[in-house]
Amino acid sequence: MFTSGRARNLSARLVAHDDMRAHPLRVHLVEDSPIMARLLHDLVEETPAKVVGHSTGAASAIRDILRTRPDVAIVDIGLSEGSGFEVVKAIAATEPRPLVFVLTNHATKPYHEHAARLGADAFYDKHDDIIALLRSLTSLATGPPHD
Question: Which structural domain range is residue 41 located in?
Fold first, then answer.
């Protein structure tokens, strides 16, 4: 699901720490539905990741992500103010930038392709891919399995 090697690089940087609790995977949520935001928060906190911020609109998300500097931003496309596409585009242009995971009800091929063109690293359907998203977060936080 990843569109670049950035996820592997982030995972290597995180697991380089002896004590993962000293630097858990930091996640910022961009979701305007209070129910979905609460659910995502609780599910992410069940992984080896920590939610460090939550925004409901595009402008506040861009500002908050630049301030909190998370490792991963989980971005919904349909927001009450602005569009998640605005967030993806703005965050993809920053350095250093978080991985950008799109999580949306609008999981159509054109949306997926547009998100990828704007710089999204992964694209998940809210109805079918929540478990895959959580597995991706866990994999990033713990690194690849050792043989």
Answer: 6-16+26-79+93-142
